[in-house]
Amino acid sequence: MTKNDPQTILQLTDFKTYFESDGGVVRAVDGISFDVKTGQTLGIVGESGSGKTVTGLSIMGLVDPSNTQIVGGTIHYRMADGQLVDLVKSAAKDFRKIRGKEIAIIFQEPMSSLNPVMRCGEQITEMILLHKGIDKKSARQEVLGWFERVKLPTPERIFDAYPHQLSGGQKQRVMIAMALSCDPQILIADEPTTALDVTVQQSILNLMKELQESLGITIIFISHDLGVIRQIADDVVVMQNGLIVEQGAVEAVFKNPQHPYTKGLLACRPPLGRRLRRLPTVADFLNGDVTEDGLKNNILSENEMKTRLSNLSQKEPLLKVENLGVSFGGQKRLFRKNHETVEAVKNVSFEVYPGETLGLVGESGCGKTTLSRAILRLIDTEVTGGAYYGGKDVFGLSSREMQTYRKGVQIIFQDHYASLNPRKMVGSAIMEVLKLHQEKTAEKVMKEKVMNLLEMVGMESFHFSRYPHELSGGQRQRICIARALAVKPEFIICDEPVSALDVSVQAQVLNLLKDLQEKLGLTYIFISHDLSVVKFMSDRMLVMQSGQIVESGPSDEIYANPKEQYTRALIAAVPE
Question: CA spacing 20 to 30 A to 448: which of 55, 349, 494, 561?
């Protein structure tokens, strides 16, 4: 990179970052090289642990010096005044001038980036005052202007709001406004849409493209999802185990991927256009297990699906929900302002047949999780209508009948980390369930059962004595599945079980759930905001909006011929 190359704004050459762990030295980034052109969007894609986030943090000078070391290479950056600097050699005081003003970053989880006890507008005002040296009144006007540019409704209200008072998409827009408020040349976006609904994700991607066009900024967009990268990036760098395994123009990489890892990342997202028996995984491609014949045989025909649906509907429903309604608020409280009643679920009716997977899809706040918790009797609020499991009214069960019901119906939650006690070994967490429901079983027998459960979900026996923080996200979710299976349920509600996972790990967990259903004869309600995931998993689908079922039917039919505009929007938002 030279002064005579104005097109290149950032260049990494043979860059290496290592850090110390209990298992020894980890080569997080191990000799990578790439250029970023001015005004370009470069995508960096890879699974968790591939080194993509460490690369972004290294550019920003944000790696932890206590256990992380840049051991080689250069990061040359062309500053706004044309000066070339090597960020690897830059001192901390120099980075304070670069960070925010020259290069800015937004992270995956806005709540961890925003100060929860400081109003949103004040947080950005503070940053503008630090870098621009203008008065507070002018800074406030700049913030309100940025809130308009990032399309936040009622900027004055958002300015005075605390982060917890905003939706996920609004918080991320605040983060984008904060990152751009000091007019940086480069914006690093580290998984900025991963925690969002697909429709909100789409709107954020569109916003970033519009801002790039109007401001001429350069974007480095980091993600685990090649489908998302395709929507926003010009070029892509594919990382695996700290190395770049493939790079080039996005469309060229998509249409003709060369490396098995890239092929695996592309194939593991559930396709909307056809129904697969199981999802290919990255490991399948790396091991050379994928063949043309295998790919063809993996497609489920329309006739096979029709036969399956017909056979399922011949049975008596396992669960029958009739005119179910759930309301919150409205009660009078001493010294508190009365709140209006919110109808979270409104007159919902459906049936679930034994061995079926019923999909429940909708955006955050549509009522799908509230509905599932009402069926499980996990919420303490006003419920109307009925839910009948095995012919018995769930809301009229005695204490003894409830214990039987709890064994028969289990739930897998989205947040696998919060679902497990961080101070308990995973084996103990599973045994705890067995002790609750099988009091007279000997400890040795229970431990054998736990070992069998671990094997069933693809874990090893040594994982029995591991703590949750020692496992990956996918492994923790497998433990949660094993715990749900411990009491041999026949019905499991899967509440966004893969939303927090990389797409490659999603594929493994979805395949596992399908395998377990076939082996154990399980019945699922599968909840997600992602229609492609729901379509892959489910036989029939319910589309939920504002507490109501707005569309229902066989999953393939809903995708092929959606009746509602809301359903069409969910389909359109799924990355290709």
Answer: 494
